[in-house]
């Protein structure tokens, strides 16, 4: 992604959120929502715009699991790893997902199709195990159902 | 005549296909030229029956569930719009035993109304609490909350009225009310259900808090994992502003209260109140050393109420019906009701709001119906990742803060995760340490380093390396974390570990291949 694109996005996000009290998290959400990630080049630009140090902004970006510093795949698959999902074979589901997609958690397939992320609770604990795919939540996901959900992404590919 | 059909928009119901059901019901109605109105309500909390569809009939609301999109044609053939017989028919919703035997005060409207309809909210008793509060002196509002015996539902169980009194007594140019909606504990979803199912109740509770302590600005700190709650909250806030329940001049009283949602970014530690304040300020969610308390020096250095969603949502009812009404429910020093969340390996998981004093066994078996797998329940974890694992011998413990504390356990936010006899408790203890290492803010050593060492020690125990000495070392490490950590994350991670060691020692000493 080119610097002017990043710069333009940041200016837009700063215009919207920059004036609010304690705006950095809102700004980072805005950037990630627009660009899909928070590029390293964005950090000094945001720091400059909010009159913060680069270290401050870097520190915040890296503290929160939600912000990523590189683009995700075309689809983001999030699997809950927490206790309630574990009690319903969540660990086996996670293992199945890693094997099927041939990637580890926090990795993206080589064709950039799918990123796999661990999540610690969607609050769907009475319908475990829970998986979110591109923002859509699924409950009581078995390995078979997982495969069907993945196959349903981008039909024909 | 238009028939009203209720299909939940709750995230759990959606995760089981409620959207497809809604589309199928609408499509069939159009094809059959039947006049229906679909209301997307919250969930009644009978999670094993979701998606649960309800139809308004002369005999009351009739429920069907769990409904899949494939069932819809047969529902129409059965005449479900007038409550016709069908294999999925559950009868009159209010008469379903799981619901009927609850004491729903805070969740009274959840699943019944349209969450973003102010008219529905007001028609069902909404905003009576705020109207009463606006007639009272600030001290009298705080006194009412104190007298109700309400204690923080986030887990710490600190008396809500005392916290409010501290904020009220501060002189400051600006005060804040913050709702901690960073419900990160596995096995808990009451905040989510409340925000998705009756968001105006939280908004009303926060407004009352603002009026009580003289705070003109509120923030809801919502976790990023709850996109559905975010959408509902923002819609409800917009409606409340439009109808002057929020803003510069609330209901013509001259009082101001502004409210907005701020979204977290996937850090469990931000559920700790001082870490949440740091995050609201746009910083790393590193915890603050107390004192000063947030009530004295909180958000942006100003006096701040930090309450859990359920605590705040309990307030309108207390103001409407009086402290004595609320106080009448409960046991011992735990007054009122607790929305209990039953989850994990259980047949009938869901939300059960009960007065304090119900036993764990009643919840697990009478409500829950035992494990989902049909195998014996071996352990339950109550109160999230920092709560103790409880063995069968403790299932007769009454759910009440003091009774739980007496057996070394934690009520916390009221989440219960059920495990059957296939669970490996050494693995769960290791997970507790691993989770702490993953989520530690890094500020204090016992938590930051202790959790990593904890994983390593448990690995050695499980591998059989110098087992007895390493078990002793683990107990020592737990003690250090418990005594030496700055906040509850490092300070309470030992609870699940120690309870696993104490009640399930055989899992640590098993010979593994």
Report on this structure.
The complex is a heterodimer of chains A (157) and B (513). Chain A is an alpha+beta fold and 157 residues long. Chain A has two domains: 3-63; 75-151, 3-Layer(aba) Sandwich (Glutaredoxin), CATH 3.40.30.10. In chain A, 45% of the residues lie in helices and 13% in strands. A five-stranded mixed β-sheet of chain A has the order 2-3-1-4-5, covered by helices on one side. The longest helix of chain A has 15 residues, at 3-17. Chain B is an alpha/beta fold and 513 residues long. Chain B has four domains: 3-96, 3-Layer(aba) Sandwich (Glutaredoxin); 118-327, NADH-ubiquinone oxidoreductase 51kDa subunit (Rossmann fold); 330-420, Roll (Ubiquitin-like (UB roll)), CATH 3.10.20; 425-509, de novo design (two linked rop proteins), CATH 1.20.1440. Chain B contains 22 helices and 16 strands. Chain B has helices at residues 11-15, 18-31, 72-77, 97-100, 118-123, 128-135, 138-148, 160-168, 190-197, 199-213, 227-242, 273-280, 309-321, 323-327, 360-367, 401-406, 425-439, 445-463, 467-484, 488-492, 494-503, 506-509, and strands at residues 3-6, 36-39, 53-57, 60-64, 89-92, 176-181, 217-222, 258-263, 304-308, 330-331, 334-335, 337-344, 350-355, 377-382, 389-391, 415-420. In chain B, α6 (128-135) crosses α13. Chain B is globular, with a radius of gyration of 24 Å. In chain B, 57% of the residues are buried. The chains are: A alpha+beta (157), B alpha/beta (513). The interface between A and B is large, with 42 and 62 residues.
